[in-house]
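Build the 3D complex.
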Amino acid sequence: MAPPATQFELAQPPNDAISALAFSPDSPSRLLASSWDKNIYLYDKLQNSGGEEGSHGTLLRTFEHRAPVLDVCFGKDGNEAFSAGMDWQVRRIDLDSGEQTTLSKHAAPVRRVVYSKEHSLLISASWDSTLHIHDPSNPSLSPLPVPLPGKPHAIAASPSKLVVAMTSRLVHIYDLSALSNALASPSPSAQPPQPWQQRESSLKFLTRAVAAMPSDAGYATSSIEGRVAVEWFDASAESQARKYAFKCHRTAHPQPDGSGSGATTTTTTDVVYPVNALAFHPVHGSTFASGGGDATVALWDAEAKRRMKVYQKFADSVAALAFSSDGRYLAVGVCPGFETGMEDYSGEGRTKIFVRELGENEALPKGKGK
Amino acid sequence: MGKKKRGHPDVEELLSRAWCYYCERDFEDLKLLISHQKAKHFKCDRCGRRLNTAGGLSVHMNQVHKESLTSVENALPNRQGLDVEIFGMEGIPEDIVQQHNQRIIQNFYQAQAERYAATGNPPPGQGGKGPAKKLKIETPEEIKKRLAEHRARVAAQKTTMNGGSATHTPLEGRPDGQSPAQNASPGAFNSPFPPPGGQYPTFPAQSVPGYSPPPQYPGAYPPPSIPSRPGSNLPAPHGLPPRPGQPGWQGSASTIDELVSGAAQEGDEIDQLIRMAEARIKPPKKPETPTGAEPPAEGGEKKSKKEKDKNVKMIYDDELSPEERMAQMPRYAFVVEAGA
Ligand SMILES: [Zn+2]
Ligand SMILES: [Zn+2]
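Done.
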């Protein structure tokens, strides 16, 4: 019998909403969280109980920024991190020394950062409708700007591709080696790198999240309208025919029909939540997790097109997800969801990070192994 | 399954057999049924523990594994819900019992008629007078009437919650995108029986025209008088208070959305049945949805065709992202300093 899975809550969570979570590439016990409270939080020793009953993980330190931090990722190792700031800056953070270096400045808040280990590239995406391509190992190279046709909302890197989801359902897929080459041999006259493919989102509503398959085969996107799409990079008609989309993170609320006169019918109202976060499992590459405004996390099998698990509801919206590099842990960032019409927002006191230690076969698609 | 007796059991014998609500298999005795249910329908896929009821399994998964049980495994598509509490033969909704019995009776007499046709022998003890003996065979009209009465009763019981579940749930979470609207065609997905597959030759659609699926007895089962349920040492499956220190704790699958088909298993004949049932209920592929991705939206058009008729409430519906909205709040706004 497999040991039961365990889930624990980190002590000392951020003071306001979480924008992103990231596990260290070389340790499953090291986790970064970026927050709207202008800080990045570095946790360690996730597996060990931190003394107090029910308290897990140790907050090693925080890294203060000038403005809310919209994204964070690790770099080449567990000591290097990058942040996307509301203050328009992309920063490199040395997690040991705490030293912060500004890598580039956009002309608007920076929404996302993603690091490609395969190409040693850092890509930042800003609401100024550009990407900046950085080589963090060569700070003398100035970042290469890549203009976009719309504001980017989500980006993800597979081993060879970069997926950029923008407003107006625009999706660009870039070849990472092309970006790398363009950065390494800049020529003033050359036009900026062109996308390898331009697509229209499979989802009709605003994209919330993108995650790329570790197998390099494709990616998943999610929207504000309780839906996830899975598609493949291969542009052949055959591969494109395999793409699909499905509804999720919704609840149905039956309501008595207002027509009166003893009618027994009910109308059902579907409450549709945004799907805020997606993450592929690094080991079982067909498995991915989605987290939604309905406060749930589900595991899906992309190949078999079926749902594997739903975890018990959290107290608030799921804002961020991350798998550890060994696939044993799933971190879940929980805070109140932002809803249409809200004039004020605060995640204070309700922002939490849960770390779930997965059972041996928990993320293993059925019919494989066991 | 038990060994078939030589000869042909009479219909009362067939009717007295224990059978499983979830998969319609029948068993020699209640003990076998209960162990079947524990092994096939109430087994924890995380640790292998076998519980006595779906509610017990739900509590177990919540407490031990921090997971929500979404549906009963290996169950027929419209029997996966957690809102019916079954233990052995207890808790089966009355209309389902009736349907089951009707099916047994129909199959029995059909098989008998076939034997009669094949052998030329009249059924024993009936002198060719036709099947009606002690057992009353209801006509489709009678069944309809009874179901109508039943539905009225259920409707009266229905309060505010869960009413529409039967038309909505099981495929909701299947990533192939089948929408509730598509599921809703009665007689296909909602048919209370698996497809014939040679087993159930005439029932139900033909004999119960206009039949619609029974509501799943929200809160009405189990009846208060169920005796000595072995699971009673378990905490009650519904209405448990959250465990201290578990902010995310919720009772057994609380929303209809969570009652999702999880039935695609490898293996035995139940699963085969389920697959057949699933295969049959799949709506004809429309080019724009289930397998292919969605069609492009036209300009500002937001609601897809199939959703126009439904009430849909989007928690967030905006051209700007939540982050952009939040960035406009004084609390989070960044003001570029001169010379910064
Ligand atoms: Zn069964
Ligand atoms: Zn278990």
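The helical segments of chain A are 176-184, 237-240.
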